[in-house]
Amino acid sequence: MRWKCTCAYDGTDFDGWQRQPGGGAVQNHIEAALTQIFDRPLQLHGSGRTDAGVHARGQCFHFDAEWLHEPEKLIRALHSILPTSIRIKSAKSVSDDFHARFSVSGKRYLYNYYLGRADPVDDPYVWACRDLPLDLKEMQVAADRLLGTYDFSAYSATHGKENDPNPVKTVSRLQLKQRGKFIRLDAEGSGFLYRMVRSIAGALYAVGRGRLTADDITEILESKKRTHRIVTAPAKGLFLDKVFYV
């Protein structure tokens, strides 16, 4: 039986999603819990990686194992073992041709900025931009320049190419919304390169501060080369919100 699961996690204290030798990743914890439940080594496959400090509301993964009870009982069993910073939101049996990574048709990420010094309760989940103000209108103009299908090499970390060698992605949504001191960037597309969303978030911040223009954003995109002009936004403001499947 193949099981598709969706989980949420607070990434603050984890070494990212992907399995690590030291056992500090989210994947390590879920695999250890599954191994304990099924009394044999089990490995899972995730929809993609998230860096240390990045959070998730809708990370997907699959694994193969025979489970003859209700899915809710599997979720309860996992929750009895997992730390409270990892929650299984759903589990269901799927066909064997489903793959958590290779069946993905798109993803949605959210990035949170905060204008000023954030409250300690909010600080682990936002980029506190203390050098006010930010020009939201210009940030949106620049964001619109990145909509479409392009080679996004200039907005990715070069050492991540081994995980995704195809730099051409389609970005269908980059929308900024402000509520009080919070600004949220919704990013949706066919897929995202390593640290691409955080690079875009950093570039738009620079536009908001007047350090870059919308024309600069286009010029950097067309160059297909990473530049020091792009600063990667902090991991803690990023959430993997949803993974889409055909």
Can you describe what's shown?
The chain is α+β, with helices and mostly antiparallel strands and 246 residues long. Strands 1, 2, 3, 4, 5, 6, 7, 8, 9 and 10 form a 10-stranded mixed β-sheet that branches. It is built from 5 helices and 10 strands, in the order βαββαβββαβββααβ. The chain has 2 domains: 2-94, Pseudouridine synthase I, catalytic domain, N-terminal subdomain (Alpha-Beta Plaits, 2-Layer Sandwich), CATH 3.30.70.580; 107-245, Pseudouridine synthase I, catalytic domain, C-terminal subdomain (Alpha-Beta Plaits), CATH 3.30.70.660. The model has no long low-confidence stretch (mean pLDDT 95).
Describe the secondary structure blueprint for this structure.
Blueprint: E1 2-9, H1 26-38, E2 45-46, E3 55-64, H2 71-79, E4 86-94, E5 104-115, E6 127-129, H3 136-144, E7 148-151, E8 168-179, E9 182-189, H4 196-208, H5 214-223, E10 238-245
Parallel strand pairs: 3-10, 5-6
Antiparallel strand pairs: 1-3, 1-4, 2-3, 5-9, 5-10, 7-8, 8-9
Helix pairs in contact: 3-4, 3-5
Q: What characteristics describe this protein?
A:
single chain, 246 residues, alpha+beta, Alpha-Beta Plaits, 2 domains, 10-stranded mixed sheet, 5 helices, 22% helix, globular
Please summarize what this structure is.
With 246 residues, the chain is of the alpha+beta class.
Gyration radius (Cα, Å) is 19 Å
CATH superfamily of the largest domain: Pseudouridine synthase I, catalytic domain, C-terminal subdomain
The amount of beta strand, in percent, is 25-35%
User: How far from one another are the termini?
Assistant: 20 Å
